[in-house]
């Protein structure tokens, strides 16, 4: 028995499924999840002393690699001054100023402790601001596990084939309208029928949670135009894409200005941070300025704020995104060559440092085309890569992430492993 197997057996006795977030359990790919003992740069070591090249990066936050020294130092320094105050501190102002500088559509921002809280709160504010009830989300997009958004969701919900979730009352999702992604006509139809009741449209501007799916040319422009026309708010859920696909997120990459933006992952440098922000007139609905209530005991936590500031500061380094793009393009090109050895179709899709190998014919543009992929082939590929020391997201409907800590040597080793792994799938 390996140490990971031992720990997993113990974990399953005291934690549902042995994990604190479902996709970690490897249910979609089989085998035992690796218990991580330490992580450094683009690698982590499991409880059995084996090192892996990591393309999960804690599901997105680790754009600088693990144990990035400036972040660790910032946390250490902050910790010596106390770990939580429940009173305002300078770190909150520092991080807010950075976020607003990097994302000009955000005029005011509120920090929370997770992406889930960010999307949940943004929708509450959108409903409070507009006085409307209905919300549009897109099939296969994942916005965290808040009740009203847990319908036709991507990520682990998709992987486990859960249509929605027991425990989410029909009344809670009764005002959530699910529309196909990349389908302008479908949203037009909803706007026609429900426009006057529509508080917000929430979207992953580049989807990561059904695997990496880019918006069709003109699609985000259409979302912007339709929401403006019916007077509903456009919410970009950039919890994954923020500071990832470009320094200013997908909104910078595609030149679209949403009314509200949700952030998470990278913004906390690996500590639990989420944020929502946008137009000042909308954000001023939030208590204590306005009547929409939203609060958090640990919100604006000084350790998390310090980690976030250090992480964002490092993104400002000259050539950061150019280097990340070059590494990611090298990986894509290598995987494309390697995939020729696969037994069936493989569709590689990438936006910046987010990449997915779909085991099916492309292009993958929405949830029906993603869902049609062969998850059994993906599972064989995943395990073949794992056996060769390459750690990919353990499910087909997820994006892999390249970090700035990956080097050409590690990318090339990954491509070499993939040439063998694709041959098994
Ligand atoms: C990860 C993610 C969330 C949820 O964030 P948590 O911190 O896990 O609650 C929300 N939206 C998107 C797009 C995400 O990728």
What's the short version?
The chain has helices at 3-14, 69-79, 90-102, 115-130, 155-159, 170-173, 184-194, 219-230, 249-254, 280-283, 302-315, 320-338, 367-371, 375-387, 408-423, and strands at 36-40, 43-46, 51-54, 108-112, 134-138, 176-179, 198-203, 233-237, 260-263, 274-278, 347-351, 354-358, 390-391, 400-401. It is of the alpha/beta class and 425 residues long. It starts with a helix and ends with a helix.
Chain-wise SSE layout:
Blueprint: H1 3-14, E1 36-40, E2 43-46, E3 51-54, H2 69-79, H3 90-102, E4 108-112, H4 115-130, E5 134-138, H5 155-159, H6 170-173, E6 176-179, H7 184-194, E7 198-203, H8 219-230, E8 233-237, H9 249-254, E9 260-263, E10 274-278, H10 280-283, H11 302-315, H12 320-338, E11 347-351, E12 354-358, H13 367-371, H14 375-387, E13 390-391, E14 400-401, H15 408-423
Parallel strand pairs: 3-13, 5-6, 5-7, 7-8, 8-9
Antiparallel strand pairs: 1-2, 2-3, 4-10, 9-10, 11-12, 12-14
Helix pairs in contact: 2-11, 3-11, 7-8, 12-15, 14-15
The protein binds pyridoxal-5'-phosphate.
Pyridoxal-5'-phosphate is lined by residues 114-116, 119, 142-144, 204, 208-209, 237, 239-240, 264, 274.
**Proportion of beta-strand residues:** 5-15%
Mean pLDDT: 96
Q: Quickly count the helices.
A: 15
- Shape verdict: globular
| Element pattern in H and E | HEEEHHEHEHHEHEHEHEEHHHEEHHEEH
Given helix and strand content, the structural type is: alpha/beta
Q: Which spans have pLDDT < 50 for at least 5 consecutive residues? A: none
* Side-by-side strand order of the widest sheet: 4-10-9-8-7-5-6
The residue fraction in helices comes out at 25-40%
Largest sheet: 7 strands, mixed
Named once each, the bound ligands are: pyridoxal-5'-phosphate
What is the terminal separation in angstroms?
27 Å
